[in-house]
Amino acid sequence: MATAPMALVAAVLSPSHGPRGFTSKAVVPPSNPRAAAVPHRRGRRSSSARCAISTVNSNGRLAEADRATAAVATVGLQDLQATPLLRRERHDEETITMIARVTVHTDSILQDPGKWSFGSIADILFRPNWLRLELVSSELDPKTGEEWEISSYAHNHGRHDDTEFTMVLEASFAVPVSFGPVGAVRVVNEHTREMEIGGITVFREGEESGSDAVTFHCNSWVHPVDKRTFFPLNSYLPSQTPEGVARLRKEELQAIRGDGQGERKSYERVYDYDVYNDLGDPDRDLDTKRPVLGGKDRPYPRRCRTGRGFTKNDPLSEKRSKEAFYVPRDEAFTERKNLTFKAKFALEALNALGQKIRTKDHKSLSFPSLAAIDAMYKDGFRNHPEKDDLDWWSSLIHELEEELGHFLQFEMPEIHDKDKFAWFRDEEFARETLAGMNPLSIQLVTEFPIFSKLDEATYGPADSLITKELIEEQINRVMTAEEAVKNKKLFMLDYHDMLLPYVHAVRELDNTTLYASRTLFFLTADGTLRPIAIELTRPKSKNKPQWRQVFTPGSDGSVTGSWLWQLAKAHVLAHDTGYHQLVSHWLRTHCCVEPYIIAANRQLSQMHPIFRLLHPHFRFTMEINAMARNLLISADGIIEGSFAPGKHCMDLSSAVYDKFWRFDMEALPADLIRRGMAVEGKDGKLELTIEDYPYANDGLLIWDAIKEWVSDYVAHYYPSASDITGDEELQGWWTEVRTKGHADKQGELWWPMLDSRDSLVQVLSTIIWVASAHHAAVNFGQYPYAGYLPNRPTTARQIMPPEEGRKGMRRLALEPEKVLLDTFPSQFQSTLALPVLDVLSTHSPGEEYIGTHADPAWLAEGKIRSAFEKFRGRMMEIVAEIDDWNEDPERKNRHGAGVVPYVLLKPCYGDPANKTTVMEMGIPNSISI
């Protein structure tokens, strides 16, 4: 039943005088022309003005329309400025009436009614003056030489949008005819509550769809008594800024930077940097103390500064917040996304609740059988996209009913749905290195024999036990080991040097163990990889020599050898799954992208074309990162509790960042070349070392499309290299990324310099690739592949029987299945990890997909609009190419009996909710989950 405040708002704003559902459609003002608003006398409109009308549908597609309520109208500001009307001498007695129509989102009133009183809602609806607007001319006042502003209050217009819970207010202005184009709108919220401004459209009275109107795409929260400045959709380099708003441009940037002092409040929009010093909570429990990440000892990217005080028990650790961590107000989830995310997480937690309760005092309890693992999943209850054909509340209730109907059971992961025995097969083990959830670790073996680069005095012998004789035996002596290296036939998952320094520390933890590992693969004639050897190593200690052994796929023909091989694979998979989560996923996307976002907001104006290019790719990333610091990567968080290497997870992530992360290697082509998975041909195109490498095949199509789109965009705004080097905001952004956001790497010589269009295109393409396609490739396959824990165990708990000696081998002979189950994650660890993997693999409501969603500023400029149309068309061509490859029987790494097709890099087409699985819903623009 609706509360009194909810009922009141619904009665006033809803056409049916009652509550209604929420949809994911974008909020657009009733009329949304994008052009400079210019006061003029009726009948004297410039003939040079041009109006192109288009709409963006719920999937982000562009469609032509000629109706009066069209969502977009564009007109070149240069054309408008050329008209005599803008240069007419000022006559104080000559004024015209201009209207500013404001859309205010009211979702928060319904979705958080507890924070609203009856009086505050009535104040919104009936108080005449709580939102004040100032129109700012793009020109200086010719009489005073100062900024030219006209102010008025907005009043409830009584209109609403049928697809979102919004209210519309209007302000009326008497504007001199010589006022010039509107260059900005300043908004002052005089209500007691913060308000989310959706959009503002300024037009001459009676001509709301005229070509002289101007649209401000705000989508921003305005705090009480805060004056906010919004700029129209025209993009300007700093040197091109209209005189009338030049000071406001700099003022807005200064406000966003803050002063680096005090604790940030939830309503603020200040962007600043800090180290990762808030992962532990030593005031609650000293065992949760964690080292600071960021600095000389443990290099790391910077996070958003929150400014909380330090703990009593550790002067280096920042206090934990009882609520969500601060992120700048406009970076926070929408009300709908926030509720959906929390509801999904809560529903998934229901599945794990029963087993957690039963095992919380026995966290090491193994599954009693493989059948018991299978019983966690409900056949027919599959991991699928959420339908969006119901309103929000109905959809939530429907999902709740479905979830409760499968209480204590999880959705069926796709890998198990396709082939229940896939996890056991060597072919699938190898295939997933090329087409699974972590296809970024496989690398070509370029040197033989294999040696460690670690200190022998500390860790033991550096040579590998994977010898020439062993390799040749495993490949049936079809060639020598040296020939296999020369012919590019040997590939490796190498977690040896990375993990060896952590082995002893991890083994001191409960319910887990660790080895360093090397896994060798041979490329067969049909283009698939075959695993031929796994080397596991424990370093030497004060009391014990180094232990290491190589395991092969049952080469001795014994049952014992086969079980040892399965156990060795379980250890390697735990290493690969942990590395995926900590490096391929968290570090290389979420963590490393946050500094780009902070620097962009601090240094690039809203009206800067590069800010508008990148902004869609930064959506919600800071909020999901804050949630990760609070719940996932924190001390005793879900990652530490269920993934290798336990409490040392983030320390390992820092070590990898220190030794391996380079911005210039984050572009897909450079990454493939570094790993030996591709070489650059004479024509400049990449030639893949493994022709059927789905991640690389599809990824290069996406990379090339992104780079072409960025090239067209950059060429439009930067005619010459001097425009790039002379752009103070652009250069300030890139300098701050290097010196503040990635401060521990600022001295590296590999950082690109922004001194040409090629260098700028490469930098921007790399950032967009990482935030969209790279993240999609490593995120949305988590539950489909790792949701069935034997296929991708998140940790390994038992040492190998041979290391344990005669006792271990005897136990293996008597209870081989139990030894395997004891090596897999415990019931408690599994039920902790599975809900998180499922939630992270879910696409958000209202997601914006690359190639389908266009930023309004892109559509406001004709050439950019055309370039985006070309980009969108290329994405649709890529869809067809990927579909063809997935049906090609020659491509055995993505097609075959029981094989999961590779669709993680397949662009969005049609309605994502109509897809069969979450993996094929598309590539989101940003890291939003």
Automatic annotation (TrEMBL):
Region (Disordered): 27-48, 284-316
Biological processes annotated in GO: fatty acid biosynthetic process; oxylipin biosynthetic process
Cofactors (names): Fe cation
Pfam families, sorted: Lipoxygenase, PLAT
Keyword Iron recorded: yes
GO molecular function term, any single one: linoleate 13S-lipoxygenase activity
Comp. bias (Basic and acidic residues): 284-300
Catalytic activity: (9Z,12Z)-octadecadienoate + O2 = (13S)-hydroperoxy-(9Z,11E)-octadecadienoate; (9Z,12Z,15Z)-octadecatrienoate + O2 = (13S)-hydroperoxy-(9Z,11E,15Z)-octadecatrienoate
Major enzyme class: oxidoreductase
Top-rank lineage group of the source organism: Eukaryota
Functional summary from the UniProt entry: Plant lipoxygenase may be involved in a number of diverse aspects of plant physiology including growth and development, pest resistance, and senescence or responses to wounding.
Protein name in the entry: Lipoxygenase
Organism: Urochloa decumbens
Lineage: Eukaryota, Viridiplantae, Streptophyta, Embryophyta, Tracheophyta
